[in-house]
Design a protein that fits this description.
By secondary structure, this protein is α/β, with parallel strands linked by helices. The chain contains 27 helices and 22 strands. Strand 13 and strand 14 form a beta hairpin. The structure holds phosphoenolpyruvate (PEP) and magnesium ion (MG). The site of phosphoenolpyruvate has 10 residues, from strand 16 and helix 22.
Amino acid sequence: MLEILHRIVQEVNAAPDLGEALNVIVKRVKQAIKTDVCSVYLTDFDRREHVLLATEGLRQDAVGKVSLPMHRGLVGLVCERAETVNLDDATEHPRYLAKHSTGETQYRGFLGVPIIQNRKVLGVLVVRQVESRKFDDNEVTFLFTLAAQLAGAITHARASGELNQLQPSRKPLNRYLSGQPASPGVGTGQAVVAYQLADLDAVPSRTTDNVEADVTAFKDAVSLTRQELENVKNRLSKELPVEELALFDALLLMLGSDTLVNQTVLRIEQGQWAQGALRDTIETHARMFDNMDDVYLRERASDIRNLGRRLLMHLQTEKPREMNFPEKTILVGDDISPVQLAEVPPERLAGIVSAKGSSSSHVSILARAMGAPAVMGVSELPVGRLEGLDIIIDGYRGRVYVSPDPSVTDEYARLAQEESEISSELEMMRGLKSETTDGVTVPLYLNTGLISDVMDMGMNEAEGVGLHRTELLYIVRDRFPGEEVQVESYQRMLTMFAPRPVILRTLDIGGDKPLPYFPFTESNPFLGWRGVRISLDHPEIFLTQIRAMIRANIGLNNLRIMLPMITKVSEVEELQMLIQRAHEELLEEGYKAELPPVGVMIEVPSAVYQIDEIARRVDFLSVGTNDLTQYLLAVDRNNPRVAAIFDDMHPVVLRALVQIVEGAATYQRPVSVCGELAGNPLAAVLLLGMGVDSLSMSAGSLLKIKWVIRSYSRARAKSLLQAALRMTDARQVRELMEKSLDEMGLGGLVRPGK
Ligand code: PEP
Ligand code: MG
């Protein structure tokens, strides 16, 4: 039996498509177990039925057409229980269906096993026998193993669209394609497929026949690309704030970097032709980012490849085709680049859908800044067949409807109407105080930097910057930034907000996001060399940054310094000594510099348990709920496989937050929250109930959170918090808060419509 199993698995693996794999399975299983029938049913949850997908022993013309109702019959029972059903005489079972269209009724022996992937039943694999027959253990495990094999194949076929071809007569029922919600909102319009840039992978290796001409051609391509980027950047400068435009600066910087230009030229000089040299340089550079665990940094690989394709296009002297953008354009593409997005006139952009990418892609950052809904990572997206089709995208839930039914269109038209009502209500929050109905003020601050969001709105609405991530300054370079470069960058931030306070966080790189020019690998990067651990081991890097921060603050005096990833008291003390040293040195050098307030991030459980000892030594505390959740729940914040377990509204996270607020109160130190939780309307009420002093979030959340704060009293928030703290899991807390926001008429802040 084992050998037969082995052979079938090999045959299934070698099958060119799912249809063939299914035929192999039903045929071979029928032979191996010597049964009368073997069939595979696919479960369709939308239509609530099980469709016959392949059979050996039943009528072939039933395949793809005949289906069994979801909760009836024995196949339905296997699916419901997600367990094997093995009956020697099926006709005696109460769930036995006496009659159905496949003509299976005269069979007594029945064995059905569920096909399961990621806890979800995808279908049922069934064998039947005319006579009574109890299938033995060997036969059960045999089927079990094949079902597991099938689960992977079905999932893959669903993603590639192949599954629909197997059931041509069954038009998908208002089916939508799923991806990652990357920018909230609902968008309706016509698909415009972003043109395919030249394909780097298709470039063959060849030797150059004229080094000089190839170098010149490459340099021309670089300057054409540079010009293009400059143009796009200029065009967008009216739409986007300086910080967002920095994305284009980063691309321009890459374009001018030694790595890209010199290495390509070197490769040409060594004999490769220009296109091959470019391909190799881009690939080497991009691969370095591919291997990083951090999603944000991994996305940089795609920026580099896009830049490479654009350069190649110019090398091949292809002209991008002229594009026509309808009034409501939904830009779709395999891997949309920021430049392609920027080519759509902003007033015509209704949404973005990309097969690749995630919510940390540059495109997503731009989409959020431009207020355009976006769904990324839609792996099933049939890009080539979408041009001109009607599309609806739901940026809250990550859904894309292609040529939707009128019922879906009507529903989303209604939601869009409600959305615009909500936007105008949100607009009314501008300029109002962030104050509860019983007079408690909760100042709202802005998160900027790595995923920066200094929109006009953020600039005017925020009380200052609660978290400026300084990593970007280091990431976009090919070496550590010097003191002067840093002074300039920090001065820009401090000046933009003065006299409002700006919290600059010291460098928080680590094992999971090494700098390209400072590489190291670790088996447990999140528990490794990260944040201040690197600062303490490399005081020269830390001191340069601190000197730059203190110098940038001269004459402005709105700087606060924040230390990330603090795990123990001695780290705080040692870093404070370094900060004092940098300050004293600057005084000695004649700078009239002030020593700024210094605070720490609380984002590691050990810091929570020592909270009063830490609070005593610093000026302020800010909770990084992203990392705190990761470390409390032992779940990697960037691993999609465990993404469903990562929930920052878990009661355990709430309890830790209460402990932090209480500990800080012992020494009257202010506590802020600057992780994603602070910008979540469901959670803001609970943070208010805890007595958190301020909240820091991305610009897109500011007005929403202000609306929430202005709708609740502190007393009500406290009683909701008490209820939440008694709960055992995050789902209950979410339900509690969703219900509460609904009651306050604020449900529209967390889903489409009102
Ligand atoms: C956090 O961990 O919650 C945080 C704000 O910092 P970062 O996301 O940059 O790690
Ligand atoms: Mg953190």
